[in-house]
């Protein structure tokens, strides 16, 4: 049996409510999807930020230790320039700190000019001056030009990481 409203092509009032319920269910489903997206995205974003902070902190620690090693090299040549084994130990400690800094800061958020890959010339200059200092024929203090250059880089790196 059909009703008069259905025979005339009109919708029964019950289907009007059914249509509204369908829209309401769709709206609720969309809100649920939005909440689910935020529920997954927020913790992932927080983890990523925590990893970035950890990398920055590790890099800053390595850069500070590198600055201390550079100070030891300069202080050693000021206080006892003729004590060759001690000076070589200072240069080797500096090299170890450079390598530690390179590893610690590789994925840190440094500006492009201060990135580890972009600073290869500094590290090569250090190696050159270290080799010159280790030369047994050398009787004078080696050039320490790389020390201020690396110190300037360390200040820029710390500035990048602590902004």
Order of helices and strands: HHHHH
**Major sheet characteristics:** none
Q: What low-confidence regions span 5 or more consecutive residues with pLDDT below 50?
A: none
**Radius of gyration, taken over Cα atoms and rounded to an integer in Å:** 33 Å
Strand composition percent: under 5%
Mean pLDDT: 84
Number of DSSP E strands: 0
First-residue to last-residue Cα separation: 77 Å
Helical fraction equals over 70%
Q: Per the principal axes of the C-alpha atoms, what is the gross shape? A: rod-shaped
Structural class: mainly alpha
Oligomer: single chain
Count helical runs: 5
Structure description:
The chain is mainly alpha-helical and 163 residues long. 75% of the residues lie in helices and 0% in strands. It contains five helices and no strands. The protein is rod-shaped. The model has no long low-confidence stretch (mean pLDDT 84).
Task: Sum this structure up briefly.
This protein is mainly α and 163 residues long. It is built from five helices and no strands. The mean pLDDT is 84.
